[in-house]
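Protocol step 4 of 5: obtain the predicted structure for the target chain.
Materials: sequence only (see below). No template structures provided, no constraints applied. The aim of this step is simply to have a reference model before the mutagenesis design in step 5. Sequence pasted as it appears in the construct record:
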Amino acid sequence: MPDMLVNLLKLSPLEPLLREMKENEIVVRRALPFEITKLRSYVESNFSTGWADEIMVGFANKPVSVFIAVAQKEIIGFAAYECTRKSFFGPMGVSETVRKLGIGKALLVACLHGLRELDYAYAIIGGVGPAEFYRRAVGAFPIPDSEPGIYSDLLN
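Step 4 output (structure tokens):
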């Protein structure tokens, strides 16, 4: 899976996405430190222990570089940035039952705005699975010769 590059200078505004989420009774916001255990459990149960480990780095960042989507006081999605490498987006996951509602895009754009606030002009999405989603959502494009990238020496 190749890495993808996103031009942060051409990001769409975040506010309309957050409004749309709110209209659907979904809140997308930065995670709070007292939510670490609940979020870690959600990520481990729905995705992987590796991703749960990865986002823990985001709680040490200032500001916290982990966003969550919440509906009816339950976490239904998450995304993070600057957890694996500088200027890297990910991981991200949304509960299967609520996919296709725009939650992933809202989480992605929130994180990319976080990277832009750190003065990056470009972001890297490492080891992309759903390339078409990233292309449509934020104009991401594959980085030539980026496979296997930073994930080549995994201890799995």
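Step 4 remarks: The chain is about 35% helix and 20% strand. The beta strands are 4-7, 27-30, 66-71, 74-81, 88-94, 122-125, 141-142.
Proceed to step 5.
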